[in-house]
Amino acid sequence: MRRRMGRPGLAGTMARTAVIAGTATAVSGSVRNRQEASAQQAADAQAADQQQAAMQQQAAAQQAAAAQAAQAPPPPPPPAGDDMIASLERLGALHSQGVLTDEEFAAAKAKLLG
Q: What is the DSSP string of 33-84?
């Protein structure tokens, strides 16, 4: 049998084409896998950043609400003048009707005036 020199035969060309195609497929697959992994890592990092930002906003809102609650002034006391006068008038009426003794009237008036 004689060996041919020069260009390869049909079987050699097909084998070489298969090796080149297989190598290209393997390389493109690994490139795609790396790109997908990189994109997934970027998406995970972005989601973590968004979650952390949301938690920080929630904490800031809670702190602001607590600060606002702490700074809220107490409710104003009810106007004491009108109520006190009405109470003193009732005590006086009860005393003048004889329902209250002098001691009871004095004790109730002292308690009312503080």
A: HHHHHHHHHHHHHHHHHHHHHHHHHHHHHHHHHHHHHHHSPPPPPPPHHHHH
